[in-house]
Design a protein that fits this description.
By secondary structure, the protein is of the alpha+beta class. It contains 4 helices and 10 strands.
């Protein structure tokens, strides 16, 4: 994105971190029950630690289909969030994902979200916009206003990022 080494860190202002621990109990009807509805994260970056056993529950949407994320022992899954998608003017896309339940085994996950300061603007950086090939695709809003918008709505795929997109 044309930044110096500390650029992404500095972009966050007073960076915050949030954590969410998820427990997915055994579910008799996993075909009818999701662990977490499809969504993209409002953060800039999400770090996800999953159980190291064979019980996979994370799926991403790829070309319109749900694809399980392969478990790698001792690995941390890194997801791009909506804030980074807006800063990059869509060059880096937040990932739509969901968690599914399992009828044989319970599982746990821990997600850590890297979050900009409330007053930081999310929207395309100047280095990500030019008049010829990369027009501005997202409006600039304070992060706190974006989060207020997302918290007032249901998690429905990537619907929250639409709030940041400019109307064409």
């Amino acid at each position: 994105m044309g930044m110096e080494r500390e650029g992404l860190k500095d972009l966050h202002g007073e960076m915050k971190q949030a954590m969410r621990m998820n427990y997915y109990p055994i579910c008799a009807r996993p075909d009818l029950v999701l662990g977490v509805s499809p969504h993209s994260d409002g953060s800039s970056i999400t770090l996800l630690l999953q159980d190291d056993d064979e019980t996979n529950g994370l799926q991403i949407k790829h070309k319109g289909c749900w694809v399980p994320v392969k478990l790698l022992p001792n690995a941390i899954v890194v997801n791009i969030g909506d804030a980074l998608e807006a800063w990059s003017n869509g060059m880096y896309k937040s990932i739509e994902h969901r968690a599914v339940t399992n009828e044989k085994k319970a599982r746990m996950s821990v997600a850590t979200f890297v979050i900009p300061a409330d007053e930081v603007e999310v929207g395309p950086l100047e280095s990500m916009v030019d008049d010829n090939h990369h027009p501005m695709m997202y409006k600039k809003v304070k992060y706190v206003d974006y989060i207020r918008h997302t918290l007032a709505k249901k998690m429905e795929g990537k619907s929250h990022i639409e709030f940041l997109k400019l109307e064409n």
